[in-house]
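Dear support,

I submitted the protein below through the web form. The confirmation email said the job was done, but the results page showed an empty box. After a refresh the structure appeared. I'm attaching both so you can tell me whether what I see now is the final result or a partial one.
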Amino acid sequence: MASKEEVNQLELFGFWVSPYVLRVEWALKLKSLDYVYTEQDIFNKSSLLLQLNPVHKKVPVLVHDQKVIAESLVILEYIDETWKHKYPLLPQDPYERAQARFWAKFAEQKILEAAWNALCSLGDEKERAIQLTIEALQHIEGELKGKQFFGGERIGYLDIAAGWISYWLPVWEEVGSMKIVDTQQFPAISSWMHRFINHPVIKDNLPPRDKMTVYFNSRREVLTSQPHGWIRI
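What the results page shows now:
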């Protein structure tokens, strides 16, 4: 476990249902790092959050020894670099490391945004967003074939970055009355989703599904009535 000094140095500012925040929590837990968690109201942002992250004004924000790090993927790399000896997340090989970063960005820009748009839009726009999500997932399916996890035999950086697919996406499918991940079309992704959310560290650090369903139903009702309102989770 982390030392008492490390405990006092780490504080994570987050929002309970944010997949970006959970990425950071999973990384901290996998590395057995103790930290203080401070919940934020993203709809009524505190002056402290705005002070810590004046550029993007959003969570997650990690404070380590009075140093402030924002943006979830950046935070993941910071954690991995700072505590290299504790459960390495990124591959050691430079090419594999570059590939992990590439696919993490791809999953965020091409899959997460399209899936969220599908949830919070209607009609033709919704159908286009569903199709874009499925097309992007086909690339991820190819990356997973023959593997337990993106990182090989254990969870790594890319698994954490794309981990929302295993838990948030099924909730969005339910709330949005849509089907994106078909087990026959995406056997590798489907198997990975099951393995990922059943990993002890991940399983013990997930938001309650029933509470998520209520939250996303509420968000969908609001955002479907607003043009481009789908951007904020």
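Response: this is the final, complete result; the empty box was a page-load delay. The radius of gyration is 18 Å.
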